[in-house]
Write a structure and sequence with these properties.
The chain is 44% helix and 17% strand. The protein is of the alpha/beta class. The protein has 3 domains: 135 residues, NAD(P)-binding Rossmann-like Domain (Rossmann fold), CATH 3.40.50; 149 residues, Succinyl-CoA synthetase domains (Rossmann fold, 3-Layer(aba) Sandwich), CATH 3.40.50; 154 residues, 3-Layer(aba) Sandwich (Rossmann fold), CATH 3.40.50. It has a 7-stranded mixed sheet, with helices on both faces. Strands 15, 16, 17, 18, 19 and 20 form a 6-stranded mixed sheet that branches. A 5-stranded parallel sheet has the order 2-1-5-6-7, with helices on both faces. Helix 13 runs parallel beside helix 14. The radius of gyration is 25 Å and the shape is elongated. 51% of the residues are buried.
Length: 477
């Protein structure tokens, strides 16, 4: 079987069993069954526990052998000493294609007997044709069929085109929570926590997401990989088609040791990872909020054609913050505004506006009304030397943020260049930010966030241009 078909049994099971299903709300086996019912999972759910007859209104089966019909996926939510016997039972039943092992206490402990026990469990599974997620793993979410095998904090299953891979259930859950708390919840397609990677690993999932039509952006929390060449091969293939954003931890020596102790992954030299990411076109970020910001940018806006950024601001201080941050950017630089463009700006803006001091930075001042924002945005978007725009405003009391957002929307929606909006700040601008994001315009709480996103998107455009040139040269050789 191809890896594509193998992982389909995880993400698109027609039936699944929860071994260790429970009526106790404090047990994982209760929460997993509850998820399936609450979210309306499209397939069949079979609780398994010899001590129960019913779990959350579903009939509970004593053993796997008592379940009628086909069974694609099993979620093993029993204590670690019992996992091996459950896997033997699954092997004897036959027909099961995939297993998620929730329990910790295996290879990640570095205890030789427990390392060996994990190997034995996987060997039993493979002999029966069963793939294994985990152990030390909470599994899968898929918004297309309302599948959720996890015990993560609940989030609204908003459908979107971002898929997440994580080596930490907690960090993966936090990612979804940050995505949910955006002005408009940032939807996702799939989510996977790999745990100890005794069998299925992050690279197999990355490859799967690369082929997945529902996934257009991949976000990953990484602690380490075991096969560098395989990573380069798979990531290089996927990044040609889709952005892959990675938060790689263990950058310091002590952090590297902590990462290695978590799942048993090989953390390795951070410089090696930096070089590998650059070589295969991975977008590296430094913290979880940045991962979400950059994923939002890729999901909601087109790539800029080049690296020239216009900063258009109604407020001097936040505008200077943006320019300052741009000065530290690796790829972005301030755009050049033509003489004709400057004349147009002078003609439509308040007399105290500061135009191109420095070039590419336009402060329309707090005297600006909605029409000034709109006219200035249209002018800079028409400039041939402008590839993207960061629009910053701190609407004063006489300029209601929602009114301003409504005025800007036609221009923002019609823009062929990416525009990143900062309406500052807090509750005063919440409704306006929601309005913009409902209409596909990404917003950011602070200018620095927008600058980092623009810089990462320019980085990806440069990588794709390099790939295109290389393939063009090869075709002409």
């Amino acid at each position: 079987m191809s890896s594509r078909k193998d992982l389909d049994y995880y993400f698109y099971p027609e039936s699944l069993a929860v071994i260790g299903a429970s009526t106790n709300p404090y047990k994982a086996g209760y929460q997993i069954v509850k998820n399936m019912l609450d979210y309306g999972f499209a397939g069949k759910v079979y609780p398994v526990n010899p001590k129960e007859t019913e779990v959350l209104g579903l009939p509970c089966y004593p053993t796997l052998n008592d379940i009628p019909g086909n069974l694609d996926l099993i979620v093993i939510a029993v204590p670690s000493p019992n996992v091996k016997s459950v896997m033997k039972e699954a092997a004897l039943r036959g027909g099961i294609k995939a297993a998620i092992v929730v329990a910790a206490g295996f290879a990640e402990t570095k205890v030789p007997e427990l390392v060996e026990q994990e190997k034995e469990i996987v060997a039993i599974a493979h002999q029966a044709g069963i793939r294994v997620f985990g152990p030390n793993c909470v599994g899968i979410q898929n918004t297309r069929n309302n599948l959720d095998t996890t015990i993560e904090p609940p989030v609204v299953k908003t459908q979107g085109d971002i898929s997440v891979i994580t080596q930490s259930g907690a960090m993966g859950g936090i990612t979804l929570l940050f995505m949910e708390e955006q002005p408009t919840p940032l939807g996702f397609a799939k989510w996977a926590h790999v745990g100890n990677m005794s069998d299925v690993d992050i690279l197999e999932i990355l490859e799967y997401y690369g082929e997945d039509q529902d996934t257009q952006v991949v976000g990953m929390y990484m602690e380490g990989i075991r096969d560098g060449q395989r990573f380069l091969d798979i990531a290089s293939k996927v990044t040609k088609e889709k952005p892959v954003i990675i938060l790689k931890v263990g950058r310091s020596e002590i952090g590297s040791r902590a990462a290695a102790s978590h799942t048993g992954a090989l953390a390795g030299s951070d410089k090696i990872y930096d070089a590998a990411f650059a070589k295969c076109g991975v977008t590296r970020v430094d913290h979880i909020e940045e991962l979400v910001d950059v994923a939002k940018g890729f999901s909601m806006q087109p790539l800029p054609y080049g690296n020239r950024v216009c900063i258009l601001t109604e407020a001097g201080g936040p505008g200077i913050v943006a320019v300052d941050q741009l000065g530290f950017a690796k790829n972005a630089q301030l755009a050049c505004i033509s003489a004709e463009g400057r004349e147009k700006l002078e003609a439509c803006l308040p007399s105290m506006a500061s135009i191109c001091h420095p070039d590419g930075y336009i402060d329309i001042t707090a005297a600006a009304m909605s029409e000034h924002h709109v006219d200035a945005l249209k002018i800079v978007l028409d400039e041939p030397e402008v590839d993207s725009v960061i629009l910053i405003t701190v609407p004063p009391t006489f300029l209601p943020p929602v009114e301003l957002a409504q005025s800007l929307l036609p221009t923002l929606r019609a823009a062929k260049k990416p525009v990143f909006v900062c309406f500052l700040a807090g509750k005063w601008c919440d409704e306006a930010n929601t309005l913009l994001e409902v209409n596909g315009i990404p917003t950011f709480k602070m200018p620095g966030q927008a600058v980092r996103v623009v810089d990462k998107m320019i980085e990806r455009k440069k990588y794709l241009d390099k790939i295109s040139q290389r393939e063009g040269s090869a075709a002409n050789a």
